[in-house]
Amino acid sequence: MTRRDFWVLAGAYSWRVLAGVAGGAVLPVVNTSIGNVPDRPVRARLVASASMATLLGLLAGPAVSALGYAVMQRMGDVSEMTSTILVLPT
Fold first, then answer.
1. The dihedral sign for the CA sequence 69, 73, 76, 78
2. Burial of 6 (0-12, 13-18, 19+ CB in 10 A)
3. DSSP class of residue 87?
4. What's the N-to-C CA distance of the chain in angstroms?
5. How would residue 47 be classed by pLDDT, with cut points 50, 70 and 90?
6. Residues 82, 86, 89: CA angle, nearest 5 degrees
7. What percent of the chain has pLDDT over 70?
8. Residue 11: which pLDDT band, with cuts at 50, 70 and 90?
9. Distance CA 76, CA 69 (A)
10. Is the model's pLDDT at 80 over the cut of 70?
11. Cα distance between residue 34 and residue 47, in whole Å
């Protein structure tokens, strides 16, 4: 592994950790904001909407990945392209 590859990989891990920390902070803030709504029917609707949005993201992520992989297969050999798409050291 070259020095450049090391820094690319370290940068990828750093950005992934930062994304996890930022993503983990969103749901508690949303739930706290919803909890401050005084009207019970509106609060119930907001809790249901937030839960539905979370589940939609969990379901849509793998579907989008599968579509991206299908596009890569149509473009050529996936084994050669995967490291380029993911910016992994070769």
1. positive
2. exposed
3. T
4. 8
5. very high
6. 85
7. 83
8. confident
9. 11
10. no
11. 7
- Strands (DSSP E) contained in 27-73 are none
Q: What is the DSSP string of 36-85?
A: T---HHHHHHHHHHHHHHHHHHHHHHHHHHHHHHHHHHHHS-HHHHHHHH
Q: At what angle do helices 3-24 and 26-35 cross, to 10 degrees?
A: 10
For residues 33 and 46, give the distance between their C-alpha atoms in angstroms, rounded to a whole number: 10
Length of the chain: 90
Torsion of CA 80, 85, 89, 90, to 10 degrees: 10
* Local structure of residue 36 (DSSP, 8 states): T
Q: State the Rg of the chain over Cα.
A: 20
